[in-house]
Automatic annotation (TrEMBL):
<protein>
    <submittedName>
        <fullName>TetR family transcriptional regulator</fullName>
    </submittedName>
</protein>
<dbReference type="InterPro" id="IPR041583">
    <property type="entry name" value="TetR_C_31"/>
</dbReference>
<dbReference type="InterPro" id="IPR009057">
    <property type="entry name" value="Homeodomain-like_sf"/>
</dbReference>
<dbReference type="Pfam" id="PF17940">
    <property type="entry name" value="TetR_C_31"/>
</dbReference>
<feature type="DNA-binding region" description="H-T-H motif">
    <location>
        <begin position="36"/>
        <end position="55"/>
    </location>
</feature>
<dbReference type="InterPro" id="IPR036271">
    <property type="entry name" value="Tet_transcr_reg_TetR-rel_C_sf"/>
</dbReference>
<dbReference type="InterPro" id="IPR001647">
    <property type="entry name" value="HTH_TetR"/>
</dbReference>
<feature type="domain" description="HTH tetR-type">
    <location>
        <begin position="13"/>
        <end position="73"/>
    </location>
</feature>
<keyword id="KW-0238">DNA-binding</keyword>
Length: 204
């Protein structure tokens, strides 16, 4: 039996990513009841039964979708906030500007489907301990990632203030996608300034 070729592994990873992306699309457009292997086959442009090889169960399909969702969201976070490490001094105004950029990136384009799919899977997490643990772990990582930002703003309690900041961002992202008409960028900026600039989140 010949050893697996690296390109074969890359191909399998790429196919899993395609399936995970298709699963997110199905969740966002058809809901949890519409998440079937046949529907994901079609969304991924694959032949009938192809998804079964990589995700033989519905639970595995949800895990693939979640993994892809978390990776993509962290890519957006890294692209938006990562360069702040080199910004000296880091001011509240700069942080507000980047949060606005992050919210825009998370609520436009294909990110909209991720927000909807995340919301749907959060409901499922209330009845599935494994999915709940995945969400808790991912969210904890994002809060930890945010701590260095608030610490750079002279926060007296980075863990608590990072949690506050993440709650605020989560709420605004869901507000833009899931609830009625979108808030204007100007209104979001005004809201963020009240919370970040003119609050105990940073030492003035």
């Amino acid at each position: 039996m010949s050893p697996a070729h690296p390109r074969d592994d890359e191909s399998r990873v790429r196919r899993r990513d395609e399936i995970a992306t298709a699963a997110i699309e199905v969740l966002a457009t058809r809901g949890l009841r519409g998440l079937t292997h046949r529907a994901v086959d079609a969304a991924a442009g694959l032949g009938p039964g192809s998804v079964n090889y990589h995700a033989p169960t519905r639970s595995r399909l949800l895990h693939l979708a979640l993994g892809q969702l978390f990776v993509r969201d962290f890519e957006v976070a890294g692209a938006t906030f990562g360069s702040l490490v080199d910004v000296k001094p880091l001011t509240a105004d700069i942080v507000v500007s980047r949060i606005i950029d992050f919210i825009d990136a998370m609520t436009t384009g294909d990110a909209v489907q991720r927000v909807i799919a995340r919301h749907i899977m959060l409901g499922e997490a209330q009845h599935d301990d494994e999915i709940r643990e995945l969400f808790d772990s991912q969210r904890a990582a994002f809060v930890t990632y945010t701590q260095w930002i608030v610490a750079s703003l002279d926060s007296e309690d980075p863990p608590s203030d990072a949690e506050t900041l993440v709650v605020m961002i989560e709420g605004l992202v869901q507000r833009q996608v899931l609830i009625g008409s979108r808030l204007s960028p100007g209104f979001i900026e005004q809201m963020l300034r009240k919370i970040v600039v003119a609050s105990p989140l940073v030492e003035n």
